[in-house]
Amino acid sequence: MRMPWNPQQPESCVPDSLVHSDDAIVVSGMRKSFGDFAAVDGIDFTVKKGEIFGFLGPNGSGKTTTIRMLCGVIEPTGGGARVMGYDICSQAELVRANIGYMSQKFSLFQDLTVDENLKFYAGIYGLSAAKFAERRGYILEMADLRGREKELTGNLSVGWKQRLALGCATIHEPRLIFLDEPTSGVDPTARRHFWELLNELAAGGVTLFVTTHYMDEATHCNRLAFIYRGRIIAAGTPHEIKDELARDTILQVEVADGEGALAALEGEPGIKEAYMQGAMLHVNVGERSAAEADLPSRLGSAGFRVLGTDRVEPTLEDAFVHLVGKQGGRA
Amino acid sequence: MSLRRIWLLIWKEFTQLLRDRSMIPLIFLLPVIQLVMFGYVIGTDVKDLRTAILDLDGTPASHRVVEGFTSSGYFVAVARPVDEAGVRKTLDGNTAQVAIIIPKGFADKVRRGQATKLSVIVDGSDAKTASVAQGYAGSIVANLSSKLYPSPAAKPGVTTPVGVDARVRVLFNPTMRAVNTMVPALLAFILMLSTQNLMSQSIVKERERGTLEQLFVTPIGRAEYLIGKLLPYVAVAIIQILVVFTVGTLWFKVPFSGSVAVLGVGLGLFMITALGQGMLVSLMSRTRYQAQQAGTFLMVPSMMLSGFVFPLSSMPAVLIPLTYLIPLRYILVIVRSNFVKGSGFVALWPQFLAMIIFSIAIFGLGLSRFQKKLND
User: Fold this and answer.
1) Number of domains in chain A
2) Interchain CB contact of A154 with B (< 8 Å)
3) Considering the domain B49-171, what is its CATH architecture?
4) Which of B42, B189, B267, B376 shows a CA-CA span of 20 to 30 A to B352?
5) Which contiguous run of DSSP H or E holds residue A210?
6) What is the mean pLDDT of residues A184-188?
């Protein structure tokens, strides 16, 4: 069902010419302002059907606001998007009926049982009794919750909660699922298990829109977009994004006083970027080789004892720091 | 709008409520405990009682009687009806709390040294005020008596066969049991507790846990969510009202002389107001603890400034203007007057008007803020 074109908000519609039948999401010039603050500042991107699309960015960069707009929860102040063919402004309810959404909080009702949670969401999405019986069986199997149907959700361990939340969010078999940091606060084993489930869904042709803090998870994605201060600063396959740094040398430096060494290197000539990666210091020395940069002696003369220097392949995290640094330099 | 979704939301809310083991005793016992507690709170200093004066005699002697009352500081003349029906009207409409009737021929009898009779009528629907008023009236009349009959017979210690005999009559609530006025007041108070506090707690809980966020990415509409949230607490409030009413009338033997329609319309309007306050509280609070604090913040002035605990007549003059801003103040007059004296819409129209204004303003404000908050 198409809503009549509304002359008052011509900019909130995405032109049909931009939307192809194999697009799950088409975002065009989408903006959201809260007073003077532009949380999302005119973004464009497309997600193809069947893709695992990674949406990355630091906290407060506009990630959640973007997702809330794409889910038809809040309206953009400008621009718009089509989600599974539906306009997010004029057809918000249809958008919500055709997507699944799961957040980091695994928003289950803790004081309802496993079965009651399933029954609730099945009813909300309008499943028939027969369909519910079928989906309930599948989800209990998938989440490994057989025999725990009558248990209070609040008493389940985090991994179970997470899988049940995924089950509730997909009980109506949506072809597009939004996952907002679905694995934060979950142990590595459960994270791996969860990604297996996501890969299974993707193999069945479901489109996944995932935000994450974990760079290793971002490499699971077919394509990525980085959002920073409300703008998309990079988009492409994980490979393409790492290619941004293809000509740069990234050195991983093991040094006793990492923070001190970092302070000493920042802003020095020949140092493009320096930052902590875990306990290690990562230094981007641009197009020079490790020998030319000669970090051990430079740091040594400043009083820092270098235990080792290795050239490393750039990771997504390196790429991200690089992209954010470039953005900051421009501002 | 989907009835199925609304029904699911209500089912979910009740399942959650019933699962909370502390909830059921709270819903049923809290009203009874409050009934017992507040039922026996004793009134303190009462001043400036609104008094209607019917002077059928109109002589210097009767003026002295009136002056004796008004100069005492306890009674303020607010109405001078011309007949007994007029007196009744001022009491029904809550214009006056006390009425003094001086019969025709009062001065003649005083001059002839015969015993005279004064009628002092006290509105018993506010038991604390009534009992204090009764006491004051008695001592003022005794004092007047000794002035009007300066005969040796009036000397202290001597029983006098003549004098002014004040027949103090307590209208509406002859036994003046505090519980008779606390039961109707509790109907309104419990309603406010349940709808405002329980509902705001439940909305904030949903936001805290992220389930609100989840619900709004499903096809559930905002109106459906609100209805699904409001109705369960309306039901809880109605159950509690029935508990207070039943225990009050059967166990505490509070006579009910009002009409269910007047009571129902009044409490209905008050409930809309309380639901609006509940929405506003839930918007101001991020955590359930904050919601509790905000609820208490609203509850304290309501209890103190509405006449629920302390009679308005004993309140410092500077606080009186504030009491007009408290919705509970108006509903208390409605429920108490209706319960005890059966006053209807005609006598209580100013209070009903105030309740209509409050319910539209507060519920409307809550609704619009709620919509706005969800859009950001």
Assistant:
1) 2
2) no
3) 3-Layer(aba) Sandwich (3.40)
4) B42
5) strand A207-211
6) 80
